[in-house]
């Protein structure tokens, strides 16, 4: 009983420690130091667990604690706390419990004989195996939690690692899963060191265990050293921008759900003028003005006519035309009026305020924007009449790439060597005269100059934390990610910072610039190594006119192979489970065969 109580305490303590490590109201960028040790109590508890049921509940409690303590602000979602926080907490905890069941497979196969052999030094890699198994299972948990239609990549170990940039640079190779792995590895080593005190029954056993621990420590140190060296190299690499985007980022600091269209637009117009003036004072022309998610409440394309007359004193269309600058604004799009299918979208207006196209959010927020089985009449009744909240949003139907001109680069000629064939023939006509058509090829390049325009994509809200979305946008040719989001409903600094931290890995994974325009924060520009270039204070009505560096597109391992690192670990976990199951079945069958043969022999005698 005492041991079970201690295990429960360890699971909850582990969850609380991980929550402290993640961005919170006291530590806005989290604590990577405590993150190194946060899983150690859980590790000790699960390896002392005696059953699948116990391990299920230990993982359940740990993950539930993390979710409730780090994502408590979900309770502020327009009065639907029981659903947004309660349902998501239970969902996360059951995901954790499922991974706890998987976690117990390896310990359950360790016999008393194997434990004695380990103490005697006959199983020199047993500690190492335990550590790797735990790390792989933890990556599996965070992968399940962070991907798919119900994905929620908050409350994760990699978020706690944000401040130590030299160890996060591996994201362009392994994604965030490599970061989770190395932090879980350190926690595992710490836990094994604590657990090893139990084996010090005599000098020989102590030496054997210490030898194994030394091997595990060397491996862990080597992994961190390699990651650190790689990180230092990436941070130290000089990166020179190929062009600059002169952008105005508008942070209205008003929840459009509460303030309404008119107030949001009026505040945004005032802040836009301030940002354009800021760039103008530096002798720069504005290329793009960005307003955050959900500013416009009417659904496009029909709403294009509405906003050509609204607001009454100066319509949105008239205001945009007065600036002679393209605008990117968050709003809604009606895909099918009859079926009431609408999307959360980023809408592009040309310099005259004319609606030019949109990208619709594909990864919807589970239980907020998208409810499972939302089309089912029973679910519709339950959401409207019991929960009191119903969203008719549907996922977008295509990935979109926006392209705008960069005003200051329009006068530059296209370089002669841009996008030319490797082999060429230079010829004269039969009289030895130059051929004009051939001569022009070597006098000018009629292709569009790549520095005269910008291609960008717009992951909306928490899509900036989903590689499944961003990889497709990147493959379209995106040179920069521009995220628009609205987290003002959270009313907490930690919610804003957690979203930023989760999204910041996007810049590293694809080695590109990330620009975020948030309704109340955190509006920020981040370079390809994750360094903050410009930002605005949280929950402040403000704007900034900035020159955002655009770098040459770099094809990273992660952009090509995606979540390969997590997939390898998950494959290894399930391969072991299948192998163990086959082995157990084979052993049972052998016992049955022996029993049958013994009976047959007795009968023959």
Automatic annotation (TrEMBL):
Biological processes per GO annotation: lipoprotein biosynthetic process
Matching InterPro entries: Apolipo_AcylTrfase (IPR004563), C-N_Hydrolase (IPR003010), C-N_Hydrolase_sf (IPR036526), LNT_N (IPR045378)
Classification via Gene3D superfamilies: Carbon-nitrogen hydrolase
UniProt EC number: 2.3.1.269
One GO CC term on file: plasma membrane
Bilayer topology: Multi-pass membrane protein
Subcellular location: Cell inner membrane; Cell membrane
Domain of life of the source: Bacteria
Coiled coil: none
Domain CN hydrolase, chain residue ranges per copy: 245-557
The UniProt record lists the keyword Acetylation: no
GO function term, MF aspect, one: N-acyltransferase activity
Enzyme's top EC category: transferase
TM ranges: 29-47, 56-74, 80-106, 164-186, 219-237, 564-582
Pathway: Protein modification; lipoprotein biosynthesis (N-acyl transfer)
Keywords associated with the record: Acyltransferase, Cell inner membrane, Cell membrane, Membrane, Transferase, Transmembrane, Transmembrane helix
Function: Catalyzes the phospholipid dependent N-acylation of the N-terminal cysteine of apolipoprotein, the last step in lipoprotein maturation.
Family per record: Belongs to the CN hydrolase family. Apolipoprotein N-acyltransferase subfamily.
Protein name listed in UniProt: Apolipoprotein N-acyltransferase
Organism: Treponema succinifaciens (strain ATCC 33096 / DSM 2489 / 6091)
């Amino acid at each position: 009983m005492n041991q079970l109580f201690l295990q429960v305490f360890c699971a909850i303590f582990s969850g609380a420690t991980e929550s402290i490590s993640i961005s919170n109201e006291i530590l806005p960028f989290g604590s990577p130091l405590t993150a190194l040790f946060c899983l150690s109590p859980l590790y000790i508890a699960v390896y002392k667990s005696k059953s699948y049921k116990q391990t299920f509940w230990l993982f359940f409690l740990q993950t539930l604690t993390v979710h409730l303590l780090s994502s408590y602000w979900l309770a502020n979602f327009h009065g639907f706390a029981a659903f947004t926080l309660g349902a998501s907490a239970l969902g996360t905890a059951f995901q954790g419990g499922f991974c706890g069941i998987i976690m117990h497979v390896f310990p359950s196969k360790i016999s008393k004989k194997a434990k004695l052999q380990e103490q005697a030094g006959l199983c020199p890699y047993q500690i190492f195996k335990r550590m790797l198994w735990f790390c792989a299972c933890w990556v599996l948990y965070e992968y399940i939690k962070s991907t798919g239609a119900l994905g929620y990549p908050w409350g994760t170990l990699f978020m706690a690692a944000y401040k130590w940039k030299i160890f996060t640079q591996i994201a362009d190779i392994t994604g965030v899963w490599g970061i989770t792995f190395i932090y879980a590895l350190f926690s595992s080593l710490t836990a094994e060191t604590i657990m090893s005190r139990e084996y010090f029954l005599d000098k020989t056993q102590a030496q054997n265990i210490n030898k194994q621990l030394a091997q595990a420590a060397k491996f862990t140190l080597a992994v961190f050293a390699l990651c650190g060296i790689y990180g230092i190299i990436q941070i130290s690499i000089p990166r020179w921008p190929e062009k600059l985007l002169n952008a105005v980022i508008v942070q209205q600091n008003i929840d459009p759900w509460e303030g309404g269209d008119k107030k949001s637009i009026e505040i945004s117009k005032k802040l836009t003028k301030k940002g354009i003036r800021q760039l103008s004072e530096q002798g720069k022309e504005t290329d793009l003005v960005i307003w955050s998610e959900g500013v416009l409440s009417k659904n496009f394309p029909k709403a294009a006519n509405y906003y050509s007359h609204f607001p009454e004193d100066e319509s949105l269309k008239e205001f945009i035309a007065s600036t002679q600058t393209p605008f990117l604004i968050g709003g809604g799009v009606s895909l099918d009026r009859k079926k009431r299918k609408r999307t959360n979208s980023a809408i592009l207006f040309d310099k005259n305020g004319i609606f030019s196209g949109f990208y619709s959010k594909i990864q919807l927020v589970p239980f907020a924007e998208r409810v499972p089985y939302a089309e089912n009449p029973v679910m519709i009744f339950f959401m409207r009449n019991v929960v009191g909240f119903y969203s008719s949003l549907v996922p977008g139907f295509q990935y979109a790439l926006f392209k705008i001109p960069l005003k200051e680069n329009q006068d530059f000629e296209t370089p002669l060597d841009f996008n030319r064939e490797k082999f060429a023939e230079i010829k004269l006509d039969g009289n030895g005269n130059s051929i004009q058509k051939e001569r022009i090829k070597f006098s000018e390049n009629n292709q569009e100059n790549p520095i005269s325009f910008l291609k960008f994509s717009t992951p909306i809200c928490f899509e900036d934390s989903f590689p499944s979305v961003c990889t497709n946008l990147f493959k379209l040719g995106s040179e920069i990610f521009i995220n628009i989001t609205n987290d003002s409903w959270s009313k907490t600094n930690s919610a804003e910072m957690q979203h930023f931290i989760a999204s910041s890995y996007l810049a590293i994974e694809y080695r590109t610039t990330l620009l975020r325009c948030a309704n109340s924060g955190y509006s920020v520009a981040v370079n390809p190594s994750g360094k903050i270039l410009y930002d605005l204070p949280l929950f402040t009505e403000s704007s900034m006119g900035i020159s955002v560096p655009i770098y040459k597109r770099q094809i990273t391992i992660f952009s090509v192979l995606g979540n390969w690192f997590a997939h390898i670990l998950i494959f290894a976990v399930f391969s072991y489970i299948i192998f163990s199951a086959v082995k157990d079945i084979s052993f049972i069958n052998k016992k049955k065969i022996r029993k049958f043969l013994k009976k047959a022999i007795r009968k023959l005698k």
